């Protein structure tokens, strides 16, 4: 038996609890991992609270990412004792995830933890940091350079936002952080933001074309915020869109795209192929220092994860919440 959180649905009502799970109930997979750390992502919050239909099969162990040690392996790619991590692939949605002391998954979903990171640090970064890195890779590979102007990061105090700020600042960009938490200005500046603005400046309906300001944008918020960010992006600028914290809608016009040549770059971390994943993790290993990782993260127990899931959906979390599944 091992401990884990199980989400179940009975008579149409969804509930989540910390419980004992039999090893024989683990799903099929070539590699069994002794999970050490997982994290509370926005999607995990949606899964546990049932606010969105993230979970596609019941009962489900949530947790879209984890890091741990290989306990047994039928794959030639992984040996017992290897330090591994997993991001996405529908884990925690359609296949049991990381909010438990054990997980069994397909070998191709796993990757080795970069040697620069402990397993705890790998999860402090987690899917949020990896997604931020995918966003930065997208902006840079399209040719964004610091001389093209300031870069806006929305949802700035969240997981994706925090790491996007640190990675962009490291590349020499002037980063403007849009946040609803005015009291986190010092935190955002310590990560590398050169200016902090109130997210309300972006969250209301706006004109299709506005004063040009941003060379690039990393947006984890969607809705009017994304529409306004596009409307304020400079000629031939780039907007990387990865999230929906404000809303799934995109109430925008085509004006920024057809009149200013703005490019909207969609970012998906879940099914991203191996090559961009490894590139994103290589950037994290190269560009993040331990101090930034520690600044961004707090550690909680499995039991506390239930409460943290509610908090992240309510927008009350700063940075990243790591779950020590053995605590
Ligand atoms: P967090 O909850 O950590 O961060 C989201 C941040 O958005 C909050 O901290 C808050 O920042 C801001 N925010 C929250 N509610 C609102 C609102 N109503 N209006 C405007 N801003 C709001 O989540 P993550 O960073 O983990 O994820 C961010 C988003 O990205 C989520 O929607 C998530 O689902 C998505 N995502 C997508 C991935 C992909 O593959 N495409 C992968 C990972 C995440 P502040 O208080 O500073 O304003």
Automatic annotation (TrEMBL):
Organism: Steroidobacter flavus
Enzyme Commission identifier(s): 1.-.-.-
Protein name from the UniProt record: MDR family oxidoreductase
Domain Enoyl reductase (ER): 12-323
Gene Ontology terms for molecular function: oxidoreductase activity
SMART domains on file: PKS_ER (SM00829)
InterPro entries: Acrylyl-CoA_reductase_AcuI, ADH-like_C, ADH-like_N, ER, GroES-like_sf, NAD(P)-bd_dom_sf, Zn-ADH-like_protein
Class of the enzyme per the UniProt entry, highest EC level: oxidoreductase
């Amino acid at each position: 038996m091992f401990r884990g959180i199980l989400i179940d649905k009975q008579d149409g009502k969804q509930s989540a609890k910390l419980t004992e799970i039999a090893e024989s109930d683990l799903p099929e997979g070539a590699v069994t991992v002794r999970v050490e750390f997982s994290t509370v992502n926005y999607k995990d919050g949606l899964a546990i609270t049932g606010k969105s239909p993230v979970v596609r099969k019941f009962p489900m162990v949530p947790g879209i990412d984890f890091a741990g040690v290989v306990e047994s392996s039928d794959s030639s790619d992984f040996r017992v004792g290897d330090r591994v991590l997993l991001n996405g692939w529908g884990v925690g949605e359609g296949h049991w995830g990381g909010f438990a002391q054990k997980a069994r998954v397909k070998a191709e979903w796993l990757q080795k933890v970069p040697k620069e990171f402990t397993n705890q640090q790998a999860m402090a970064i987690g899917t949020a940091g990896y997604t931020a890195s995918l966003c930065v890779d997208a902006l840079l590979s399209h040719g964004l350079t610091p001389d093209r102007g300031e870069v806006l990061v929305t949802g700035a105090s969240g997981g994706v936002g925090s790491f996007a700020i640190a990675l962009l600042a490291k590349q020499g960009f002037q980063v403007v952080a849009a946040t609803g938490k005015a009291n986190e200005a010092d935190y955002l500046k310590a990560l590398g933001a050169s200016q902090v603005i109130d997210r309300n400046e972006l969250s209301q309906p706006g004109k299709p074309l506005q004063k040009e300001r941003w060379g690039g944008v990393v947006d984890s918020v969607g809705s009017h915020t994304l529409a306004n960010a596009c409307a304020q992006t400079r000629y031939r600028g780039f907007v990387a869109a990865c999230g929906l914290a404000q809303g799934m809608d995109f109430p925008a016009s085509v004006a920024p795209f057809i009149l200013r040549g703005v490019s909207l770059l969609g970012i998906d971390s879940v099914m991203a192929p191996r090559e961009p994943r490894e590139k994103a993790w290589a950037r994290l290993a190269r560009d993040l220092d331990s101090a930034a990782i520690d600044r961004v993260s707090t550690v909680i127990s499995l039991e506390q994860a239930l409460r943290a899931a509610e908090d992240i959906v309510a927008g009350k979390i700063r940075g990243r919440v790591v779950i020590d599944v053995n605590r």
